[in-house]
Amino acid sequence: MLEFVNFIDEELAPRGVNTLVLRIDYNYEFESRPELRDEAALSKAEVKQLVAVCQKNAIRIIPQINLLGHQSWAGKAGKLLTVYPQFDETPHVEMPVEYEWPNADGLYCKSYCPLHPEVHDVVFDLVDEICDVFETDAFHAGMDEVFYIGHDSCARCAGRDKAELYANEVNKIADHLARTDRQLWMWGDRLIDGKMTGIGMWEASMNNTHRAIDLINKGVMICDWHYDQPLQTAVYFAMKGFSVVTCPWKKGAVATAQLQDMVSFRQQATTEMAPRFGGLMQTVWSGADSFLDEFYGIKPPAAESETACFKALFAEIGKR
Questions:
Q1: Domain limits for position 122
Q2: How far from 113 is each of 109, 165, 214, CA to CA, in Å?
Q3: Could you tell me the superkingdom of the organism this chain comes from (predicted)?
Q4: Quick one: which H or E segment has residue 61?
Q5: Residue at 54 is within a domain
Q6: Among 3, 14, 126, 239, which one has the highest count of C-beta atoms within 10 angstroms of its own C-beta?
């Protein structure tokens, strides 16, 4: 924890980073729902260290818990569906002993059923508690890569419009956050038509959730991730009325192109649209220890790595 706090203070702040999104999921010692604590859980005191260093450096800190999708990984169900299996959108799909993709069940990650009458009582307890302890004005709900939604096997969701189901869940979360003056952040992939654009099933939707873009609250912040190509879908989101940040991962050349695009978007946009282009957010999916070991040269980074991308991105920013 101390190493990460120092990294925020000594590396992120001097680079002018103004927002830090931290994926917490169930890695916190929840008091409202202690049954959902993971084994390696942050304490309240540890969170307050993060809050203090971010406040010191005027960095907006935003916690994330994956809602709707990403309720499992590989062959293991996540904490929510382990404790509350009744929330599973696809209970007939068993978790495999050895996970492979593709598979006959179309299993990437499990989802909770957005129409289960009790699921929001549980997840909103977590959302409220994590937002309170982080003293934040925003919350990131994930919502990416949702392949299981409106499944034919679900007694509540079968036959329903997947775009409406997805939009209703986004709006329910956004409305809940709005009661305490908090903003919803989410990934944008499910709002892009993967078929029409040719972007495909990972960075866009192939199961018709994309039409939800016209049904959801315009106050939502869209995190538009593209990792292999600098696709310019941020313009699409801005034209639909959303604020948007572009999100690279491992490829420095892609990240620098995305930076150049974001600058160009702002310069060439109308007065109405320019403020919607919110900048770039470097994504990191390895653990903090692994990232820091590479960043400080304790272990060598791969040719394409999160640390190399991070450094390439800020080297480009430094030229401006």
A1: 2-217
A2: 13, 10, 22
A3: Bacteria
A4: strand 60-67
A5: yes
A6: 126
> Which two three-digit tokens encode residue 54?
């971010």
Q: Which amino acid is at 224?
A: D
DSSP, collapsed to helix, strand or coil, labels residue 264 as: helix
Task: Give the span between the Cα atoms of 245 and 187, in whole angstroms.
Answer: 10
CA distance 258 to 287: 24
pLDDT confidence of residue 301: 77
- Indicate whether 285 belongs to any domain: no
Give the model confidence (pLDDT) of 106-142 as tens digits: 999 999 999 999 999 999 999 999 999 999 999 999 9
pLDDT value of position 320: 73
Write out the DSSP string of 62-106: EEEEEESS--EETTEE-HHHHH-GGGBS-TTSPPPSS--SS-TT-
**Domain CATH number, residue 165:** 3.20.20.80
pTM score, whole prediction: 0.97
Continuous segment of H or E residues that includes residue 224: strand 221-225
In a domain, 60, yes or no: yes
Residue 224's closest CA among 265, 280, 174, 264?
A: 280
Q: How many domains does the chain have?
A: 1
Give the per-residue pLDDT at 302. 80
CA nearest to 135, candidates 67, 41, 39, 59: 59
In a domain, 250, yes or no: no
Question: Which pLDDT does position 69 carry in this prediction?
Answer: 98
Q: Which helix (H) or strand (E) holds 20?
A: strand 19-23
CA angle 108, 112, 113 (to 5 degrees): 120
pLDDT lower than 70: segments of the chain: none
Backbone φ and ψ for 21, nearest 5 degrees, come out as: -100, 125
